[in-house]
Amino acid sequence: MDLVNLLLINAGVVAGCMVCLWLLSLWLKDASIVDLFWGFGFVVISWVSLLNAAAPTTAAWVTTILVTIWGCRLAGYLSWRNIGHGEDSRYTEMRKKPGRNFALFSLVVIFGLQGTIMWIVSLPLQVIPTLDASFSTLTPFGLMLWLVGLSFESIGDYQLARFKGNPQNRGKVLDQGLWHYTRHPNYFGDFLVWCGYYVLAISFDASAWWTIIGPALMTFCLLWFSGVAHLEKRIQTRRPEYADYIRRTSSFFPWPPAPKEDSASVTTHSHSPTS
């Protein structure tokens, strides 16, 4: 199957999934279920791409397996963290704005936007099964980026969950482990994972260079659209003590921190780009 038809098929699959999720959210009165699908959505796209390929290569199978590991871990973690806690406050606030048809708004701005971002970000994953791909000297570098990124995400999430699970840490900031070197190890890990997918794509075939659109969009979302900038704006408005943690700790890329002055408050993190 040619790439254009595959992209159209995946667009239809993503649109169908998002509409079904939207209908379920109306019944549950919980739009935040869209976040739980984020990681698993890439798994769906990867398998659809693989199964529609004329003759999937070993490289395509390996990439799909990597995406499945990453996406299922993320979906499982977010489900464990969020299910049973009601709708995320971000979406609840959106519901309260007067004069808004929230059902239509959520279809377009929440589910539609997230589906569109997912389809664009996944361009390297959609292209790989269409390539006459074989491993190259650049492939181990892509695998290394993916592994380091997955480790940052997984360890960062575990450290935060363990810290928040201790009542004695209420009102404190997590500044140990990976959180000692970056305020967002999960976002940094996500960045590395998508860089890894892109490097794998171009290592299989240099003609896939243009799929950098995907990881570039993901990086934009993580840093400026809905990740670091958006999250920290919310934190500072309700927890002024967090300012010192910002002062002394690298925002994104791991780096030795400045000397500690005051304590700060811990916060939660979400991996979804529309969070």
UniProtKB/TrEMBL annotation:
Cellular component terms (Gene Ontology): membrane
InterPro entries for the chain: UstE-like
UniProt entry keywords in alphabetical sequence: Membrane, Transmembrane, Transmembrane helix
Coiled coil regions in record: none
Organism superkingdom: Bacteria
Transmembrane segments: 6-24, 36-55, 61-80, 101-121, 133-152, 187-204, 210-231
Name of the protein in question: 3-oxo-5-alpha-steroid 4-dehydrogenase
Gene source species: Bremerella volcania
